[in-house]
Design brief:
Layout lengths: L3 E2 H8 L2 E3 L5 E2 L1 E2 L9 E5 L5 H6 L4 E4 L11 E3 L3 H12 L15 E2 L4 E2 L4 E2 L4 E2 L4 E2 L4 E2 L4 E2 L4 E2 L4 E2 L4 E2 L4 E2 L4 E2 L4 E4 L4 E3 L5 E3 L5 E4 L4 E2 L4 E3 L5 E4 L4 E2 L4 E2 L4 E2 L4 E2 L4 E2 L4 E2 L4 E2 L4 E2 L4 E2 L4 E2 L4 E2 L8 E3 L4 E2 H12 L1 H25 L1
Parallel strand pairs: 4-5, 5-6, 6-7, 8-11, 9-12, 10-13, 11-14, 12-15, 13-16, 14-17, 15-18, 16-19, 17-20, 18-23, 19-24, 20-25, 23-26, 24-27, 25-28, 26-29, 27-30, 28-31, 29-32, 30-33, 31-34, 32-35, 33-36, 34-37, 36-38
Antiparallel strand pairs: 1-3, 2-7, 21-22, 38-39
């Protein structure tokens, strides 16, 4: 079991210690689940209440957070980043994958493998594929014809990479990812049937892209569907044909992008948000969970709701909606009073 004192952890993260430096920490946990001997963290004042209830022996917090009496704390400006360093101290040893080429892997003769590439059991690599140095391809992965994969990539089991897809360096593809499936394109034939439209483009992931489990990125009808460097995509995300996602964007679980949507650099789309086809989001846009974006959004704007609008306006609208039952009752009373006054007037006549 790893044991660290608070003094050691404070030095590790460059923080300021409040409390006993000799306090021993043996693990990490979330603020709600933490027990004695563990350290937790609170990134903002929303967790203030839970800090009062936690059983943790210490916490990593921002300067503006008040700690319970007697509870030690490591004070830093960025608790998430500091806690990540602490997490690495207590994390289990990383899994050592089997190196080299498994004898059951099927690799075409024309494939070019870089230095120290690993290919797992029953993986299939089609002709004319290029794989960069130190890339790890786990079991049951399919890599289609003429795919290019960069160096230091990690591709987990059951990933499908269709023909002519290009992947940059240091990319991570989690289990079940599909890159380069056909874009969803049909036209109605004269007899009323759906006629498939050819999808002749490809998918390009630039460097340092991570794609979560069971997410799908469709090939373009023409040219390419593009995910730029540093973008992180959660599980169960659908990116349709010809979309372009800017650098360092975040797409959270179950986000859906319709064809030819453009997402600006640094933008964040919360869970289950959707973007209509041919809509452009500027740089550093934030889209709330469950929002439906139906028109272009300028740089730096925060939107939510359906159809998505300025977040502050959406909050005002929701506040008014919450008052609807009260307002309905007030209207009923006013109508009743009006009828009574009308009846009184009729009697006077």
């Amino acid at each position: 079991m790893t044991r660290k004192t608070l003094a050691e952890l404070t030095e590790l993260v460059g923080g300021r210690l409040k409390g006993d430096p000799a306090t021993v920490i043996t693990g990490i946990a979330g603020v709600r689940e933490a027990q004695a001997g563990q350290i937790t963290f609170a990134a903002n004042v929303r967790y203030q209440e839970w800090l009062q209830k936690t059983r943790a022996s210490a916490a990593v917090v921002k300067p503006d957070i008040d700690m319970p009496d007697g509870m030690p704390a490591i004070v830093v400006e960025r608790p998430e980043a500091a806690f990540e360093k602490i997490t690495r101290c207590f994390a289990p040893e990383p899994i050592e994958y089997e190196e080299g080429i498994h004898p059951t892997a099927v690799i075409a003769e024309s494939v070019k493998l870089g230095v120290d590439v690993s290919v797992g059991a029953h993986a299939v690599i089609a002709p004319d594929v290029v794989v960069g140095d130190r890339t790890v391809i786990r079991p049951l992965v399919y890599v289609g014809h003429e795919v290019e994969i960069g160096s230091d990539c990690l591709i987990y089991p059951n990933v499908t990479i269709r023909e002519r897809v290009r992947i940059g360096d240091r990319c991570i593809l989690h289990a079940g990812v599909v890159l380069g499936s056909d874009g969803f394109g049909y036209q109605r034939a004269a007899d009323g049937s759906q006629e498939k439209i050819m999808q002749t483009g490809t998918v390009v992931l630039e460097d340092d892209v991570e794609v979560g489990a069971c997410s799908c990125i469709d090939r373009a009808r023409f040219d390419r569907t593009l995910v730029k460097s540093g973008t992180k995509i959660d599980n169960f995300v659908q990116i349709a044909h010809n979309c372009v996602i800017g650098r360092n964007a975040i797409l959270v679980s179950q986000v859906g992008l319709c064809g030819s949507a453009h997402i600006g650099a640094g933008s964040v789309l919360a869970g289950k948000a959707s973007v209509n086809g041919h809509v452009t989001l500027g740089d550093n846009v934030m889209v709330g969970g469950l929002a439906g974006v139906t028109r272009d959004v300028p740089d730096g704007m925060r939107v939510s709701g359906f159809p998505a609008q300025d977040h502050a306006q959406e909050l005002r609208l929701m506040a008014h909606i919450q008052r609807l039952p009260e307002l309905v009752e007030r209207i009923k009373k006013l109508e009743k009073r009006i009828r009574e006054l009308e009846h009184t007037t009729d009697d006077d006549c």
